[in-house]
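Quick start: what a row looks like.
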Amino acid sequence: QVQLVESGGGLVQPGGSLRLSCAASGFTFSNLYIGWVRQAPGKGLEWVSDISGGGGKANYADSVLGRFTISRDNAKNTLYLQMNSLKPEDTALYYCARDFTGWGEYDYWGRGTQVTVSS
């Protein structure tokens, strides 16, 4: 069955960096877009970024453009999110999600990894 398992979250000071990982299994990873979605405390879901199956096309929300970088290693079935210049407003539960159409329709989600940006 499809599984997505996030890791790499934690507590970091403003201006710091973290790298999130998402280990995928149960499907042909390289065939599909996959992305990151976050949920801040008391708020709704916010799409963050996604990347094409081959890794050649990446998209970002305006709120993270220039600070976050999405990448994937298809040999390892793993998705990454490098987060730099973190701000308190980046505090959220970050989910990895599979986009089965390539048009932002996410059908499988991980359980999330918590990122807290605070001094």
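That is the whole record. The chain has no helices and eleven strands. Residues 30 and 53 are 5 Å apart (CA to CA).
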